[in-house]
Structures are given as structure tokens and as C-alpha cells.
Amino acid sequence: MNYDHHHHAGNAADCVKHLALSLTLQALIRKDTPLAYIDTHAGAGQYTLGAQGEHLHGVSRLWADRRSLPHAGAWLKIISNENGDGMLRHYPGSPVLAATLLRPGDRMVLCEQQPEVATRLRKAMGQRAHTSILSEDGYRALFGLIPPPEKRGLVLIDPPFERRDEWERLADTLIRAYRRWPQGVYLVWYPVKIRGTITRLWQALRKHLPAFTCELLQMPEEGREQLFGSGLIVVNAPWGLREALSAALTELGPLLTEAQSGGLWSLRCQGWPGPDKA
């Protein structure tokens, strides 16, 4: 696997997925009962940002406006707390972000297949109670973890999209997981790059489960094979999440747009009810 979390840390895709993760967890912890958080592709958990890197096109563009983006405020506050001197040097990945938002009694299971990255993840998580770190393939490990004893929770699926069969594996995993644990909340990130591939994923999923999708495009989609933006799939979204996510991504859109787009960006959201309600 060639994916370098450190180089990509804090990029526009991270901004979209971590904002969505923050909003989803905030919605889930409104209920008093404990929950389980499962991260299938956890990464190192914490990253140091250098003078170079994709964060220059992501979180670094938001930093100056972090106090004037109310719908993204809770997520940006966590990043601010990691950078107490006001200089953006540290970026919390999904495990650290989730650990900050979850309550002490909520359980975390973090899967990271690369041994050296898993070692850094253990260091980043410290001695947090009720936390397991598995050096396993997250897709396979998931089926031994659901349904969790807590009966409620969130699964984050954020693969690197390096394998030729990644999209097919993602669809198969999500469908099988939903069948095994239909009450669970699932949050998936995917790259908006080849529209036909995304359409096939949606078609496969809508036959089996209810979901909504949001895509934040940083440039017009013109048919070329390049990264246009980020997409999210949410299964069993908590009440109010769709509206909160749309409002927050609308704040981020103008700041994350690419120069070659002429300042153009777009947010597209749609959903389907599932096979039993169609």
C-alpha cells in the first residue's frame, strides 16, 4: 500500500470527511446510552504539518476563518485546541478527533493494517480506556465487530482507493455490514473522480440499503479523469445530520475551491429510501 497519510493529512478530502465525522458523532452522543465507534482505515491518528503538503489546499485555507465558520465550529475548535499557540502545526486524524468527541464510556475499535502506522496510532491514542487497535484489514475485521454489544454506533469507512477492486469491495462490505447490523450508522468517504464508477456504486447500494450522499466539488466536473472533490455516503443518518452537513459544507466550499476553477464550486446532495420503501 502506497498511500501516505502524512502527506495527505489536512487536505480538502480530510476537511470534508472529518467535518462529517464530527457532525455525526455530535448527533449520536445526544442520547445518553453508550455507543461503539469503528474505524476501518484509521491511519496514525495525529499528524505534524510541514511547510509542504496537501494541507495547504485544505485546512490551511480554513485556518484564518476558523472563528467565523459556525456550522464547522466544533471540528475547527478541536483543531485549534491541538494548536494552542495559534500556529497550525498539528492535525488530528479521525481516531483522535473521535476520541475527543466521544464520552469516556464509549468504545473505540481502530483498524490499521500497516504496522509502522499502527505503532504511531497507539502512541497517539495513549491510554484511552475502552479502545482497541487492530493491525488487521479493516474490511475483514468489521464483520467480527458488528453488531456491537452497545447496539448503537458508527462505522467510518475511509479506504485509500488504491486497489483496482476497491469500489466493488466497498459496495460488498457496506451491503453485508448493513445486513448484519441494520441499526448501525455508516459514514463512507469516496473520491469524486470518475462519474461512471460512482454511479455504479450508488446503483449497487440503493438496492439494499437507505442512504444519502453529499458531494463537495472544488471545480467543475468536466469528464476528465482527475479529482474534482469529495463524496460522502451516510447510512442511517441521525436526525438533523443531513441539514447540518449541508450547511457546514456550504461554508467550506468557497474556501476550498481550486484556483483553476475560477472560484466555482458546488454541493450536491441526494438520497434514496432503501428497497423496502422505494
TrEMBL record:
GO terms for biological process: rRNA base methylation. Keywords: Methyltransferase, RNA-binding, rRNA processing, S-adenosyl-L-methionine, Transferase. One of its GO terms (cellular component) is cytosol. It holds the Pfam family RsmJ. Its EC number is 2.1.1.266. GO terms for molecular function: 23S rRNA (adenine(2030)-N(6))-methyltransferase activity; RNA binding. S-adenosyl-L-methionine binds at H18, H41, S94, E112, D137, G138, D158. InterPro entries: RlmJ, SAM-dependent_MTases_sf. PANTHER family: RIBOSOMAL RNA LARGE SUBUNIT METHYLTRANSFERASE J (PTHR37426). Specifically methylates the adenine in position 2030 of 23S rRNA. This is Ribosomal RNA large subunit methyltransferase J. It comes from Acidithiobacillus ferrooxidans (Thiobacillus ferrooxidans). The gene is rlmJ.
